[in-house]
Amino acid sequence: MDCTHCSPKSCRNLESCGAEKYDAAAVEEIYRDPATQSIVQAAAALVDGGRAGTVSRLREIIEFAQSMKYKKIGLAYCYGMERDAEAVGAIFREHGLRLTGVSCSVGGMAQDAVNQASGTHKVSCNPVGQAAQLNAEGADLVILMGICMGHDILLQRELTADVTTFAVKDRVFANDPMRILRGYPETDPACVPD
C-alpha cells in the first residue's frame, strides 16, 4: 500500500480501497475501548467545529492534557533546548499542569558507557534514562522536545505513558523539518534528485 500514489482516494468517501492488510474488525474493537475513546474525543474537541488551525501546537497540548485530566506531564528535552524547556514548563504551570522536565543528559552517563562502539568519555544523551525517570515520576503524558533522531525512538519505546511531540530538532532549518519540502532542497544533497 502507498496512499501517496492512490488517485481515487476512496477512503475519503467512507469506502475501503481494498488494499488494507489489517483486520478492520479488530481495529474497530480498539476504538470501542473506553481508554481509546477518551483520547479520540479529546483530540476531536481540538479539531472539530472549526478549531483546526486556530490554536498553536502548545495550546493544543495544554487543552488536550486538561481534557484528559492528566495528573503529571513529563517533558523530555534536549539540553540544547533548555531555555525553551524552561519556558514551556512555566507556561504549563501557569495553566495548572504539574510538570517534570528531564534533560537528555540525566544521570551523567558517558558516551562510551551508552555506546559500546564509542571511545569518547564525555557526557552522552541518555534517552533510556529519561524514560526510566519519567516512568518513575509517574508521568501520564510525555512531551518530546528536540530529542535527537534515534534517541527519540529509544525514549518512546521505553515510556509507559502517552507520548506526543512538541518540537523536532532540525539543526539545518531552525527546528522546522518541513522547510526542506518548501523550496530548500538545494541545501541538503540527500534531497536533490539525480
Describe the structure.
It is built from seven helices and four strands; from the N terminus they run αααβαβααβαβ. With 194 residues, it is of the alpha/beta class. It has a domain at 70-191: Rossmann fold, CATH 3.40.50. It has a four-stranded parallel beta sheet, sandwiched between helices. Helix 2 (34-47) runs antiparallel to helix 3 and helix 6 packs parallel to helix 7. The two termini are 25 Å apart.
SSE arrangement:
Blueprint: H1 24-32, H2 34-47, H3 57-68, E1 73-77, H4 82-94, E2 99-103, H5 111-114, H6 127-137, E3 141-145, H7 151-158, E4 162-167
Summary, kept brief:
The chain is an alpha/beta fold and 194 residues long. 37% of the residues lie in helices and 11% in strands. The chain has a four-stranded parallel β-sheet, sandwiched between helices.
